[in-house]
Amino acid sequence: xIVFGWREAKxxxxxxxxxxxxxCDTSECLFIQVNRLYAHIFWIPFIPLHKKAYSIxxxxxxxxxxxxxxxxxxxxxxxxxQASKTPWWMFTGLLAVILFVLFLSASAFFNS
Length: 112
Ligand SMILES: [Zn+2]
Hints:
Blueprint: E1 4-16, E2 30-41, E3 44-57, E4 63-65, H1 71-83, H2 92-111
Antiparallel strand pairs: 1-2, 2-3, 3-4
The structure holds zinc ion.
């Protein structure tokens, strides 16, 4: 049995200035968090998929997904999302497969 699926990991978080939380109305405690979805096999990350942006309140912990982020914050969310880099470990499975194939090729070459 092969266990596979996808998970989400936080790749970036940036504070937002001049905004207050829509729920608790606390100012200067909003963050834009960017998560990246990745495909995994046996929980080993294989291929990074798309990014998702959220706004999170540092006070009441309310999490708002991209479609519900207020229009004035959408631009900032998009900017943070584009600037967020994919961490190397999301390619771990792919790198392992490439190294394994290289190892097999090398051993076939040296044994012939
Ligand atoms: Zn709040």
